[in-house]
Description:
- The complex is a heterodimer.
- Chain A is mainly α.
- Chain A has helices at residues 9-22, 36-46, 49-63, 65-72, 83-94, 99-117, 120-126, 203-212, 234-237; strands at residues 145-146, 157-158, 178-179, 187-191, 194-197, 217-220.
- Chain A has nine helices and six strands; from the N terminus they run H-H-H-H-H-H-H-E-E-E-E-E-H-E-H.
- Chain A starts with 8 loop residues before the first helix and ends with a helix.
- By secondary structure, chain B is an alpha+beta fold.
- In chain B, strand 14 and strand 15 form a beta hairpin.
- Chain B is globular, with a radius of gyration of 22 Å.
- Chain B starts with 18 loop residues before the first strand and ends with a helix.
- At the A-B interface, helix 5, helix 6, helix 7, strand 3 and strand 4 of A face strand 2, strand 4, helix 4, strand 5 and strand 6 of B.
- Strand 3 (178-179) of chain A pairs parallel with strand 5 (144-146) of chain B.
Amino acid sequence: MTDSFHLTPPGRASLDALCRRIAPIAYEGREEAVDLAAAVERRLASGDHALARQVAALLAMFDHPLAGMLTTGQPRRFSALSAEAQDAALRSWEESRVGVRRTVFQALRRLILSTYYALPQAGRAIGYRGPLHRRAPEVPWEGPLSGVASDDEPVARMTTAWDDTRSHPAPRDIPPGVVEGHQLGPETAVRAGVCVVGSGAGGAVVAARLAECGHDVVILLDSITRGPRPTPPRARRR
Amino acid sequence: MTPRLYADAGTRATRDLSVSILQGRVVGGGTTVNWLITLRTPEWVLDEWARDHGAEGMRPGEMAPVFDLVEREVHARTVPDDAHSPSNRALLDGARRLGWRAGAVKINTRGCVRAGTCGLGCRHGARQGAAEVYVPRALRAGARLYTDVRVERVEVVERDGASRGGAPRKRVRATVLDRASGRAVGRLTVEAPIIVLAAGAVGTPAILLRSGLGGPAVGRYLRLHPTSAVVGEYDREMYGAAGIPLSAMCDEFVRGERGYGFWIECPPLYPALASSVVPGFGARHRAVMERFPRLAPMIVLIRDGADVTASNGSVRVDRRGRPVIRYRLGDADRRTLIAGIKATARLHLAAGAREAITLHARECRVRSETELALIERQSYGPNRLALLSAHVNGTCRFGTDARASTCTPDGRVRGAAGIYVADGSLLPTALGVNPQETIMAVATVIARRIAEDHSTG
């Protein structure tokens, strides 16, 4: 799915104009200025292409001269309007009495803003410090507390300095019993006593309880991006 | 946010995008990416289930030992007083000044280092969710786990006349997916007499609908705990991207009128998620985001479904079998939401916030008690206020009325012997508390019932 999704040149122009009005912070010529429209397009191309095509259709709708007629009274493309007229057009979509127009506005707004604010330079611009596994604690409400750890509490306490080895647990082996999709051939047939679909708060609990009372359980899972992580050795927790 | 951990890469929403839906799509499901709060189902909700929905074996006295067991297994422990983040401290302080009931909650961690990145899964080995506790237990007891397989449908091979004295055989048809591209690369068929559907309250009804099973109520009665937020701006650093995200709650108003009220909690504040819920665009949006370190968000969640006979929302499947989610706030639920947003703004002001910003598309900032009326004057139609849901349930609910419930009170899908539902979709009403402990406890009850119904001999 990463091969071929590109916006048309007018779609790209429309997206670029939207990005400049929705997230102007991205374009303020410091050394960290970004091409936000390109970042959005890359994000679309890396995901579900059906969704990307829907977004492309929304952009086309947004940039259509008739949409300009509705919002500004002028049959002009969004990308051809002045900045003030673009802002007015965006506000008219944002607060439109027509539900579909509010939906289109929110879809494009969220896509653009969440793409920008996921960039490391955007985080830095607003004072986001990044996750704790890449740095030492900087505010008093993060990191282990001081004192002696107790099993009656959910939190870590330490009498020594921050030990960042626990932020980097050793890579896991795939536990016995797990079969990953790439290990399967084109056709696989399996028999079981119980087939559990899902491994969340419901499925994992049922699977564990039935397996523990002797049922032959198969669990099916539609993804695996992060498996069970081993609890770090107690020694590290002090 | 790591999109790969969430359903539809984090973009799941109702069809009109009016409610964004965060559902974990990873080993452990939502319990791998949630904010860890471990709460029992309120007793008055369990009483309601027994009285109005025919629940069996789920009365408060029967559930108490199940909750004890689950809490022991997931290491649920109350967050100590010196561990709260500034947002949670503000919630506790504000509630105390207003005389509202609030307190520290239990979270399911062991040695939590308060990183605050729980929504990305725990990098620190502290979380004690389904993936850390129950999946390894299942595997140690001999279960097999197949990953990267999407279940398409369940086929009932024998209508009746069970072959081996047990339930009739079924076939689960699944597609094997290539992990990188998501493309179908193979097929997996599992034949078993007992099927337990626990694919979440979007996935489970979608499977039943694709299978033609479950009757007229499948996918209906969607409950979401619709959630909005009020962002407080403070004069001091609140930095909500770190610290235990959710360590305190205010449940003063949860019983509301006739049991359908709201409660208030703190979420973590990550830049990308914050940017999509902070309203507006351009200079207005940026003015809020630039105050990131001094912002403290609080969320208000409503126990939806006050009009108990109305469905309000549904999960259907389109021609390609993909889920389509619809939801509309009922009138009574909308009034609860408005009251909840007002109360949350008051809580911020009582805690010393300089201003409280709602998520309305039309700018709404409250700087004093007298300005709270602004909140009532806002519009509450779809996409006029950011709404989120991380608690999806009810779409295969149990009950005694076959037209209004998919499952019988003991968790079986009607008309399909040996098919059970054991996830949030089974819950007959919204809960009024975050659902993970309820789902684990109800799944325990269902598992025991399956074990009684089907011996392993």
